Task: inverse folding
């Protein structure tokens, strides 16, 4: 049967791993040692990418390709800052956790609307996802201008860093364990997502919903509900990622591609490279975070005057190289298809 | 936005159109400065104005033209070098319209140019940074790290204008001590504070005491990072210790570019019927076009020898004794 | 009475069920829904915005700054109200026509080219450099123009085509999904162009990242006074639209390209090299993106400057709205062109942020993506039979 | 018309496990089931036969709760039910194994079996995987299934997958098992294995309903057989009291010739010569090793074998979809080993591919465009640049007419046609353009007997006209009836080329399994065996 294609893809995965390892080692060797601060930095840069990637897995595994992750990140980022701002005008006062919560809700609601379009109204998922991105890309600066009279927000407070007791006192690498809560959430989210997808009933249903919805339906599980939950979870994750991005920077910037600046698309790529495995997706996201860290580091320390703009495209080029080796990822076979129960 | 200015009851019957640069209002520096200049003209001369915020460079042409076509607009202010090429053509086409441009030169009788020697102001803040890194100093929200002689520069995009800021800054630091390690990095965007923050984080954690940015909204991240690391930052274009007041405890100084003065002056010349088209105002320290302005929390709180040596360099630059480079060696 | 009603219902039934007509109705309905939602958004946001002269007061809510009808009328005025506005609209239309066709060519072949933007950026740069170079050797008159402009278009097409070929090759031979590769290549194209212009081939004396201005021989002759619009470019676009229609409906090559994109195995069965055809489709699509860049440089900006507007992305919307039908792209690009030039007007005269138009465009695409929405509405209101929908064969 | 079936009304409660009374199911424009009364006795095997589109699947979907009947009632064990979905039906003890398996390929056997009813631990949060494996293993053991609960679905054979489907139903407590065309995808040996499983299940008191197109199987395995035609139940007969001929008549409404009249044909010159050809599959693993044979004008050359023994690769090498690694292929006198697929089409090679929905049709094209598939560069249809749509349309209308494609609508998309009609269209398109060689791979798979008869007749017409025909089929009766010579493939090799009239089905079965039965000797029907090559 499919043993063959399977072994081919494993072979390709092996290739990929090798390519990634070579790239990583080469970078490290060229540009000096890794220290606590660069790891922390890579982790922070990973946060929005990683959450988008993990969220995208839920959605696509359930059968709904969510190309609008970027838009959901924008919604999360904008809502977090707008909530902080709005809260500060109320007697409650600016509360970073409340704002975080509002951002998650806002992004989840947009994801729900997307899910309704895809499930109830059988929208073409890629096109609807694109629409979600475009709408968010227009709406966030539009709303900023309405609220603040300009596309950028005033600055707001962000998260305080927390030290993990014990670990934070370690020599050399202890500083890694002093981090903002979203970073901790991300580190926890990778394994947690893996667990949910691979060890719980819901995880089985998600997989069946994306691979063979009819099988799930005939097994008596409501496929549409599973797909709704999967897609809304992608909104929740992107809400976290976007809010973390904006609250960490303490501002929302709506100019150009907005402050999200393509991170959602990178997240999408990350889970493809990770082949829908949450751990793989997390590592791939971390690879992007790490590459960005290295790229910013190279600019500062290298004597070779490489223009920053060219170093900046390194992650994208690596994605292309990786895609050539990985080729077709094991996309869930029914992702992108409508499913309609026959009764 | 329309309906700016005091409605109807204008003393001088002057209307100004202003087209900002991309990045828009709320950058707490360049565009906001220009806006401040117009607002000052509004309150002092009672003029009216209309403004337009281009989303992309490509919108500028049409915006200039929209204003130029309106008969009641007396002056079109073009904020930023990106206006230059479009203005060259539009100034020729609308030869009856008066224009002003900031940060670039258009050779036409109906355009008045304002350019700034940012490198001179940057030199002073570079010198300040260099002096701070070699001093044990703590005030407000930051303290220096006397162990390392490292300072940083964060750019938006790596263009020749931003390179000029970097060059002046480097020269200022080197003026203090050749051995100071000046780190630079470009975020690749003027709207990515997250990246700005991480660049600055890296610099601070490597031991940098001060980071100067010339990166628009990206700079917000630099301030955020300075605050969380308890180090210093230097603002740009505007006195950012005032415009980004939340960070006034770490913004030790700002390299202010008096775009507001330029805008104000150009309007004034129109109001006073004294518009000198074709002229170029090259504004440096001497002309009070740029300056290093100490942050509001640091006013009078910096060690005297630091302020005095900066004062000294200012004079030397004005006197031509110090020649500030406009390019870095490696570019 | 009832006879009339049932006849009317019958007509509407047929309208709702007929496929091409259905698509047209869905497009129009999407537009209307998006405009209505946009109006709601404008109205509501008017209560948040601050302004000096509110248009409406709602007790308990406050003052509203915007009147949606006024906003839309202003847009209409701004799009068609004067020769200059019309010129602006047609300028946008021309560019959207090309990027829309670029997207449609790929779509027709079953490929989703999100990379038109990157192809346009690099194609435009190639055009600028080529015409700057060639202009030195030609006379400064109409003959020069006849030489220079076609060379510029060719340069844009070649480079854009090359940039489109890359994801085509990656799709055909390495099975890499074109949606991802084209997104990545957009980032890379923008960076490469920026780097080249900023460091090597641009006007290094300028603080802006731009090339020298192209000479008059390389500029499209303008057709409407004081606006940068040329009937030649628009006419060319119309011809290309017809040509693509003929290609896909009348020629063996078009048939084979489509088959390859829709069902690779079946294409091979029919004796076609499906891989090569995927590459061909993407190259053709990229070439059209490159031509859009060429026209942008030679008709609109007269130079290459970083920050090329997002015609490539808008082209996706234009193409989807037209059901990827090359002829349908003609009215949809006019519509989007009008929206764009109208957006400048609402910002100028009413202070409504231009991003509103992006939201409306996104909403249009969202509605277009879900024809079922309208079928359900149609059914609710009693029209249309409940035949299950077959998926739109033309779309991806 | 309706039930002449006494058990429906006559039997007392308990005797009939399933009663469908007056079921009518309408789809827009189609009455799929028309007032069907259908009853199945507990503890029996019941076969349901009928042509494509007769309404068999629909009827069973009603019983399984997938469709709500427009009219009529469902009774299980005498109790009336109104199912709101399959889960209600499952609760009532109904299990269904669909024609297309509903298994998640990326999950394991055990995960598929328990899907939707997973055993859990930790208060329901986590699945208890070891319990799932244990339960699956013990269930498999009880019914004598040989299955590894931890194997992934896409790593096991079709027959094993079918057993997983049965286990799934049993795990949910099914007492009545419905199987939709369960034998269509199985090898003869696997079919026997399935019938053994039926026996085990009946012994455990289960009831089985299965849909089939193969009348012989219905007669062999079922106790009772019901026949549907045009949505109506023609009748239910005990298997012992009927014959293939009678059943076929009930299904089609007229007499059907089950044994083909194969007229003698003039065998002419070799058209296709395959010499020493080896083919590697996509992974580079040898799939065909050193094969020689020739197909002559006016001859049907059959290839029999269990699926996956190199037939597909061999066919692809001949049709130009896959390069052989060594060897030569000659067609109509010219060497075509490396010729392109389109050259071969141009030379007059027609090809009915095995996977019609992937290769022979573009599912999103209407029939008009599909009529052009593969012909687009032939001079009748284009000048190489511009398509001649008029002649294409004429051709397509001809095909639709001649081959009785239903509905006769050239502007309908291919995916809106049933499998049988898709196949008739493909066969028509390929046969009608006067080919000199027809390569037909599984031309009647999933096609009803009326259409099978039709396709067989056409093949023999072509043969009579002197066309060379290479026929690959896993249906033994088909290749035996049609072929003039029959090659048996096993493990990439042609084990023997035999005279189909001179070997028994058992002997063929053994050859297909790679063994040489004693009966087959050089002088018996063998024309040329492998060793002599
Ligand atoms: N979901 C549906 N919607 C509309 N029509 C349907 C649907 N399912 C079946 N039909 C129609 O109902 C009729 C009976 O179809 P059904 O699938 O039950 O036939 P069948 O006897 O199982 O045929 P086959 O032997 O091809 O499997 C056909 O005419 C078919 O077109
Ligand atoms: N959801 C549906 N909507 C409309 N028609 C349908 C639907 N499902 C099936 N049909 C129609 O039912 C008919 C039979 O479909 P079905 O899938 O049962 O064919 P099949 O069993 O594959 O045929 P065959 O047995 O010939 O291979 C076809 O005409 C098909 O178009
Ligand atoms: Mg450097
Ligand atoms: Mg069926």
Result:
């Amino acid at each position: 049967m499919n043993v063959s294609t399977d072994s081919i893809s494993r072979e390709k995965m092996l290739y990929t791993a090798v390519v990634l390892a070579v790239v990583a080692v080469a970078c490290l060797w060229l540009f000096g040692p890794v220290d606590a601060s660069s790891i922390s930095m890579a982790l922070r840069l990973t946060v929005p990418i990683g959450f988008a990637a993990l969220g995208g897995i839920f959605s696509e595994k359930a059968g709904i390709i969510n190309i609008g992750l970027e838009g959901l990140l924008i919604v999360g980022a904008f809502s977090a800052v707008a909530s902080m701002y709005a809260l500060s005008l109320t007697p409650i006062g600016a509360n970073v956790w409340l704002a975080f919560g509002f951002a998650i809700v806002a992004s989840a609601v947009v994801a729900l609307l997307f899910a309704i379009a895809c499930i109830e109204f059988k929208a073409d998922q890629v096109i609807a996802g694109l629409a979600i991105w475009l709408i968010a890309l227009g709406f966030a600066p539009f709303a900023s201008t309405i609220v603040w009279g300009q596309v950028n927000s005033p600055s707001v407070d962000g998260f305080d860093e927390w030290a993990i007791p014990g670990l934070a006192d370690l020599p050399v690498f202890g500083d890694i364990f002093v981090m903002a809560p979203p970073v901790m959430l991300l580190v926890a989210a990778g394994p947690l997502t893996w667990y949910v997808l691979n060890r719980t009933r819901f995880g089985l249903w998600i997989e069946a919903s994306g691979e063979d919805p009819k099988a799930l339906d005939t097994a008596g599980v409501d496929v549409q509900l599973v797909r709704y939950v999967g897609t809304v979870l992608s909104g929740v994750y992107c809400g976290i990622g976007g809010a973390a991005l904006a609250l960490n920077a303490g501002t929302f910037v709506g100019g150009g591609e907005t402050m999200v600046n393509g991170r959602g698309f990178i997240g999408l790529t990350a889970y493809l490279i990770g082949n829908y495995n949450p751990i793989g997706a997390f590592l791939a996201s971390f690879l992007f975070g790490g590459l960005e860290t290295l790229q910013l580091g190279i600019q500062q320390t290298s004597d070779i005057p490489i223009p920053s703009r060219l170093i900046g495209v390194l992650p994208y080029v690596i994605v292309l190289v990786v895609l050539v080796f990985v080729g077709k990822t094991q996309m869930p076979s029914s992702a992108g298809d409508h499913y309609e129960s026959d009764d | 936005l329309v309906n700016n200015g005091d409605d109807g009851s204008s003393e001088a019957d002057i209307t100004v159109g202003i087209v900002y640069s991309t990045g828009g209002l709320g950058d707490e520096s360049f565009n906001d400065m220009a806006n401040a200049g117009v607002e000052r003209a509004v309150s002092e001369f009672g003029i009216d104005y209309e403004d337009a915020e281009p989303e992309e460079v490509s919108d500028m042409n049409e915006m200039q033209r929209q204003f130029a076509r309106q008969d009641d607009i007396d002056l079109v202010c073009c904020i930023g070098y990106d206006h230059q090429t479009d203005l060259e053509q539009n100034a020729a086409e609308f030869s009856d319209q008066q224009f002003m441009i900031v940060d670039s030169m258009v050779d036409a009788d109906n355009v008045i140019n304002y350019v700034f020697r940012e490198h001179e102001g940057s030199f002073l803040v570079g010198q300040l940074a260099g002096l701070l890194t070699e001093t044990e100093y703590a005030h407000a929200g930051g303290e220096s790290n006397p162990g390392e002689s490292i300072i940083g520069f964060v750019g938006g995009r790596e263009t020749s204008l931003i390179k000029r800021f970097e060059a002046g800054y480097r020269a200022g630091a080197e003026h203090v001590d050749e051995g100071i390690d000046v780190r630079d990095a470009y975020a690749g965007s003027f709207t990515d504070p997250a990246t700005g923050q991480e660049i600055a984080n890296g610099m601070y954690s490597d031991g940098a005491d001060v980071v100067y940015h010339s990166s628009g909204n990206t700079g917000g991240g630099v301030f955020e990072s300075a605050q969380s690391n308890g180090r210093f930052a230097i603002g740009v274009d505007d006195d950012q210790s005032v415009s980004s007041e939340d960070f006034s405890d770490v913004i030790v100084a700002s390299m202010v570019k008096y775009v507001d003065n330029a805008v104000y002056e150009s309007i004034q010349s129109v109001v006073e019927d004294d518009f000198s088209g074709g002229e170029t105002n090259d504004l440096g320290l001497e002309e009070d076009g740029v300056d290093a302005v100490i942050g509001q929390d640091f006013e009078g709180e910096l060690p005297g020898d630091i302020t005095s040596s900066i004062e000294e360099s200012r004079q030397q630059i004005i006197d031509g004794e110090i020649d500030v480079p406009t390019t870095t060696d490696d570019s | 009475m009832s006879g009339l009603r049932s006849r009317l219902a019958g007509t509407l039934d047929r309208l709702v069920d007929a496929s091409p007509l259905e698509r047209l109705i869905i497009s129009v309905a999407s537009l209307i829904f998006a405009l209505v939602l946009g109006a709601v958004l404008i109205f509501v946001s008017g209560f948040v915005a601050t302004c000096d002269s509110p248009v409406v007061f709602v007790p308990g809510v406050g003052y509203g700054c915007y009147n949606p009808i006024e906003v839309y009328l202003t847009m209409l005025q701004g799009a068609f109200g004067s020769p200059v506005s019309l010129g602006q609209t047609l300028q946008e239309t021309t560019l959207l026509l090309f990027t829309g066709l670029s997207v449609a060519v790929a779509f027709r072949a079953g490929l989703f080219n999100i990379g038109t933007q990157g192809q346009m950026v690099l194609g435009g740069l190639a055009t600028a450099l080529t015409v700057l170079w060639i202009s030195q050797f030609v006379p400064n008159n109409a003959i020069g123009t006849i030489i220079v402009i076609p060379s510029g278009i060719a340069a844009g097409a070649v480079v854009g085509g090359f940039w489109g070929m890359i994801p085509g090759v990656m799709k055909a031979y390495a099975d890499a999904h074109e949606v991802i590769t084209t997104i990545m290549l957009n980032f890379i194209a923008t960076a490469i162009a920026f780097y080249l212009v900023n460091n090597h081939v641009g006007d290094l004396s300028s603080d802006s990242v731009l090339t020298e201005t192209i000479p008059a021989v390389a500029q499209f002759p303008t057709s409407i006074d004081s606006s940068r619009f040329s009937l030649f470019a628009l006419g060319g676009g119309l011809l290309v639209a017809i040509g693509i229609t003929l290609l896909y409906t009348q020629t063996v090559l078009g048939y084979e390209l489509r088959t390859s994109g829709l069902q690779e195995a079946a294409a091979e069965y029919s004796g076609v090299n499906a891989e090569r055809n995927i590459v061909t489709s993407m190259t053709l699509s990229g070439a059209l993106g490159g031509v859009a860049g060429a026209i942008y440089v030679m008709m609109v900006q007269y130079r290459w400057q970083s920050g090329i507007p997002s015609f490539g992305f808008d082209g996706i919307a234009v193409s989807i709205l037209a059901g990827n039908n090359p002829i349908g792209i003609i009215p949809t690009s006019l519509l989007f062109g009008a929206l764009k030039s109208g957006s400048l007007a609402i910002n100028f005269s009413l202070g409504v942020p231009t991003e509103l138009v992006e939201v409306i465009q996104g909403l249009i695409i969202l509605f277009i993506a879900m024809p079922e929405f309208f079928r359900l509405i149609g059914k609710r209101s009693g029209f249309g039979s409940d035949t299950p929908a077959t998926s739109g064969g033309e779309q991806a | 018309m309706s039930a002449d079936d006494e058990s429906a009304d006559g039997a007392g409660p308990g005797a009939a496990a399933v009663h469908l009374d007056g079921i009518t199911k309408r789809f827009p424009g189609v009455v799929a089931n028309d007032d069907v009364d259908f009853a199945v006795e507990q503890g029996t095997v019941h076969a349901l036969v009928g042509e494509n589109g007769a309404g068999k699947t629909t009827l069973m979907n009603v019983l399984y709760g997938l469709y709500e009947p427009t009219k009529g009632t469902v009774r299980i064990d005498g109790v009336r039910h109104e199912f709101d979905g399959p889960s209600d039906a499952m609760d009532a003890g109904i299990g269904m194994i669909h024609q297309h398996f509903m298994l998640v390929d990326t999950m394991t056997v055990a995960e598929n079996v328990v899907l939707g009813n997973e055993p859990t631990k930790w208060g329901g949060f986590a699945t208890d995987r070891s319990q799932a494996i244990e339960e699956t293993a013990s269930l498999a053991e009880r019914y004598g299934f040989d299955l590894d609960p931890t194997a992934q679905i896409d790593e096991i054979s079709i027959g094993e997958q079918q057993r997983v489907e049965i286990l799934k139903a049993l795990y949910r407590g099914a007492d009545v098992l419905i199987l939709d065309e369960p034998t269509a995808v199985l090898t003869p040996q696997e079919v026997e294995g399935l019938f053994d499983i039926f026996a085990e299940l009946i012994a455990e008191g289960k009831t089985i309903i299965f849909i089939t197109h193969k009348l012989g199987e219905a007669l062999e395995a079922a106790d009772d057989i019901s026949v549907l035609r045009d949505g109506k139940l023609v009748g239910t007969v005990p298997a012992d009291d009927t014959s293939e001929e009678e059943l076929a008549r009930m299904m089609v409404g007229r007499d059907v010739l089950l044994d083909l009249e194969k007229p003698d044909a003039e065998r002419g010159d070799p058209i296709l010569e395959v010499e020493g050809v080896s083919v590697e599959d996509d992974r580079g693993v040898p799939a065909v090793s050193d094969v020689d044979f020739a197909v002559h004008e006016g001859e049907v050359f059959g290839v029999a074998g269990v699926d996956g023994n190199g037939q597909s690769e061999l066919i692809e090498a001949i049709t130009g979809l896959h390069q052989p690694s060594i060897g030569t292929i000659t067609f109509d006198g010219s060497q075509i080993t490396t010729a392109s697929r389109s050259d071969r089409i141009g030379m007059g090679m027609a090809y009915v591919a095995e996977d019609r929905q992937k290769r022979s049709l573009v599912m999103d094209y209407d029939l008009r465009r599909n009529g052009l598939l593969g012909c687009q560069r032939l001079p009748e249809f284009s000048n190489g640049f511009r398509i001649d749509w008029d002649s294409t349309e004429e051709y397509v209308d001809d095909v639709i007419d001649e081959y009785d494609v239903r509905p006769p609508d050239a502007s309908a998309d291919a995916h809106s046609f049933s499998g049988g009609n898709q196949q008739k269209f493909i066969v028509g398109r390929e046969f009608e353009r006067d080919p000199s060689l027809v390569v037909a791979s599984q031309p009647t798979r999933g096609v009803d007997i009326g259409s099978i008869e039709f396709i067989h007749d056409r093949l023999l017409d072509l043969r009579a006209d002197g066309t060379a025909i290479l026929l690959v089929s896993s249906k033994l009766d088909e290749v035996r009836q049609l072929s003039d010579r029959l090659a048996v493939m096993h493990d990439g090799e042609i084990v023997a080329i035999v005279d189909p009239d001179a070997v028994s089905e058992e002997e063929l079965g053994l050859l297909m399994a790679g063994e040489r039965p004693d009966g087959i000797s050089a002088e018996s029907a063998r024309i040329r065996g492998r060793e002599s090559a």
Q: What stands out?
A: The two ends of chain B are 40 Å apart (CA to CA). Chain B touches chain A at residues 1, 22-27, 53, 55, 152, 155, 157-158, 183-186, 188-199, 201-203, 205-206, 217, 220-221, 223-224, 228, 244, 246-247, 330-331 (CB under 8 Å). Chain B has ten helices and 14 strands.
